[in-house]
Amino acid sequence: MYTVGVRDHIMVAHRLDGDFFGPAQRMHGATYVVSAEVEQEELDEHGVVCDIGMLRAKLRGVLEQLDYRNLDEHPGFTSGKSTTEVIARYIHRELGHVLPLRAGTMLTVVLDESPNAWAKYRGPIRHASTMPGAEIGVA
């Protein structure tokens, strides 16, 4: 299995509902390092999994919708339900919709909260992009 990945970061504000979250129930800021990895069994006709520059640009496009935002006011999140795991899944799904890769390509999104804590969402891209060439080998 071949893998390529890129990293970026976002700064958000949010709160988490419930006593379970202790002080994170209060509004607070978070900075996440966001990694996105694409995995495929075979390389394309250019000898790559995908273009790294394209992957980086698509990730940045998705992250721009979250960067410097209060996630409690973002339409993609229920107020008080923006855990690191939920944010990782959201980024995975949004990125999967814009990547010009065939359905079934494995995508992993990791959010690092700190050097010691992270959350990951890994799964296949559910929908092939409508970009030219993405229809080749659709699973």
From TrEMBL:
GO molecular function (one): metal ion binding
E.C. number(s) listed in UniProt: 4.1.2.50
Which InterPro entries did the record assign? 6-PTP_synth/QueD, 6-PTP_synth/QueD_sf
Q: Does the record carry Kinase as a key word?
A: no
The record's Pfam families line, in alphabetical order, gives: PTPS
Keywords, in A-Z order: Lyase, Metal-binding, Zinc
> Cofactors per UniProt?
Zn(2+)
Superkingdom of this protein's organism: Bacteria
Biological or metabolic pathway of the protein: Purine metabolism; 7-cyano-7-deazaguanine biosynthesis
Q: Lyase among the record's keywords?
A: yes
Catalytic activity reported: 7,8-dihydroneopterin 3'-triphosphate + H2O = 6-carboxy-5,6,7,8-tetrahydropterin + triphosphate + acetaldehyde + 2 H(+)
Q: Which family does it belong to?
A: Belongs to the PTPS family. QueD subfamily.
PANTHER family assigned to the protein according to its UniProt record, in alphabetical order: 6-PYRUVOYL TETRAHYDROBIOPTERIN SYNTHASE, PYRUVOYL TETRAHYDROBIOPTERIN SYNTHASE
State the protein's name: 6-carboxy-5,6,7,8-tetrahydropterin synthase
Q: Which organism is it from?
A: Polyangium jinanense
What does the organism's lineage look like at the top? Bacteria, Pseudomonadati, Myxococcota, Polyangia, Polyangiales
